[in-house]
Amino acid sequence: MQFYGYHGALEEERRIGQRFDVDVSLILDLYRAGSTDRLDQTVNYADVYTKVKEIVEGPPCALIEHVAEKIAETVLQNYPVVRECRVHVIKPNPPIAGHYDSVSVFIERRRTTAYLGLGSNMGDRAGFLKRALKALQAEQGVQIVRCSSIYETDPYGPVEQADFLNMTAQIETLLPALALLKKMQTVEADLNRTREVHWGPRTIDLDLLLFGQERTYSEVLSLPHPEIARRAFVLKPLAEIAPHLVIPRENHSVLTLWQNLNEEEGVRLWKQNNGAGEFGLFES
């Protein structure tokens, strides 16, 4: 696709404009459309063209990286059948020193199923869980799919403190793992989470347990969460909503890990998820 836009870091680019080439690849299941020959069973690429055109020929952006992100986000939000979106934005003949045919960016964005752990042992514990879920749901690119029941659990670690309320949640997200983690940390900060004592009391604790089948290890984020297989307060609620999910690296299902855990005590059902109220847990 070719458009005329006004994107660039230089004032001249935003004033004069230039041509932009855009390639968009959509990954989705085409069996139903192929077998029925019905347009409503697939994605109308004329509609995609119109949406991309509105972005590229719309308000100027300093970076073509931002243009690419806006295209991917728009496609994934508007077409739920699309599992993955690949966007290539090309700027021919950029106004920089030297000879370049073009500069471009290529990104891949996809819908990812992730699992979160939530805990609180200060103040209105259930209230903090509810506020955290509502804050996450309000984030663009995050959708709460299902929640476990709430369990009261003995404190984990050497610090003497009050019992926790713990639960897990399955979400669908358009965000990369690190971007999701940053959103979670913002929610924690907004709910007065402090990190003065390791394993100490907290208003809210949000852990990114699993992000699809991604495996990564760094000081910032390790996936899957390295403590999943040893924490009863994680495995019990996780087994409720995803018992047959196989944990990367562990190569066992959540249910098997829970059944093999030697320390199952200290996790007590506190509030059954009965489907009533917000997230099935909080009646009005």
Description:
- Catalyzes the conversion of 7,8-dihydroneopterin to 6-hydroxymethyl-7,8-dihydropterin.
- One of its GO terms (biological process) is tetrahydrofolate biosynthetic process.
- It catalyses: 6-hydroxymethyl-7,8-dihydropterin + ATP = (7,8-dihydropterin-6-yl)methyl diphosphate + AMP + H(+); 7,8-dihydroneopterin = 6-hydroxymethyl-7,8-dihydropterin + glycolaldehyde.
- It comes from Sporolactobacillus inulinus CASD.
- Belongs to the DHNA family. In the N-terminal section; belongs to the DHNA family.
- The structure is a single chain.
- The chain has 284 residues and is of the alpha+beta class.
- The chain folds into 2 domains: 109 residues, 2-Layer Sandwich (GTP Cyclohydrolase I, domain 2); 160 residues, Alpha-Beta Plaits, CATH 3.30.70.560.
- Helices cover 30% and strands 27% of the residues.
- The chain has 8 helices and 12 strands.
- Strands 5, 6, 7, 8, 9 and 12 form a 6-stranded antiparallel sheet that branches. A 4-stranded antiparallel sheet has the order 1-2-3-4.
- β10 and β11 form a beta hairpin.
- α3 runs antiparallel to α4 and α7 crosses α8.
- The longest helix is centred in the N-terminal third of the chain and has 15 residues.
- It is elongated and about 65 Å long.
Give the SSE map:
Elements: E1 2-5, H1 11-16, E2 18-27, H2 31-36, H3 45-56, H4 64-78, E3 84-92, E4 102-110, E5 112-120, H5 125-138, E6 142-147, E7 150-153, E8 164-173, H6 177-190, E9 205-211, H7 232-241, E10 246-247, E11 252-253, H8 254-260, E12 267-271
Antiparallel strand pairs: 1-2, 2-3, 3-4, 5-8, 5-9, 6-8, 7-8, 7-12, 10-11
Helix pairs in contact: 3-4, 7-8
